[in-house]
Amino acid sequence: MAKLPPGFHFHRSNVKLIMYYLKRKIMGKKILFEVISELNIYKFSPSDLPDKCCYKSKYLEWYFFCPSERKYASGFRMNRTTKIGFWKITGRDRRVLYDEKFVGSVKTLVFHQGKAPRVQRTDWVIHEYRFEDKDMADAGFSLVSF
After folding, report:
1. Is the keyword Transcription regulation in the record (predicted)?
2. What is the rounded CA–CA span in Å between residue 143 and residue 146?
């Protein structure tokens, strides 16, 4: 991918993240500037993630394309465990609309360190974006790849 030009600002919104970055990634299309690294975040401790990000920002935010992995081969639950803990869903999914059409959702997860019964909630939070497009799914695109 091309080097970022001087003055480039990664202005992120839920719609842009889903309709430009995630949609292009799923479709195998080129993304002009590399601002989102591809990384299986579940192989790392949350404190290791900032160093894995390709776009450094003044904000405490990092973006990754993370391949999805099912917990069980025949199930729908995702595997979000790491070596030192797990990411737990918090709250409800938030719907993302574009031109009044449902295009995706955002799920909030909080990292919990340890294993039951000794689990400690941490301040690490991730927002998981999901692209939804019935026409693309019907055409054979896997929308849960990242």
Report:
1. yes
2. 8
Integer-rounded Cα radius of gyration of the chain: 16
Is the model's pLDDT at 124 over the cut of 70?
yes
Q: In what order do the strands lie in the sheet with 118-131?
A: 85-98, 101-115, 118-131
Q: What is the pLDDT of residues 71-123, one digit of tens each?
A: 877 777 888 999 999 999 999 999 999 999 999 999 999 999 999 899 999 99
How would you label 121-140 residue by residue, b for 16+ Cβ within 10 Å and e otherwise?
Answer: eeebebebbbbebeeeeeee
> What are the backbone dihedrals phi and psi of residue 42, each rounded to the nearest 5 degrees, phi first?
-80, -5
Helices (H), the chain: 14-16, 23-27, 134-138
- For 14-138, CATH number out of 3.40.50.720, 3.90.550.10, 2.170.150.80, 3.60.10.10 equals 2.170.150.80
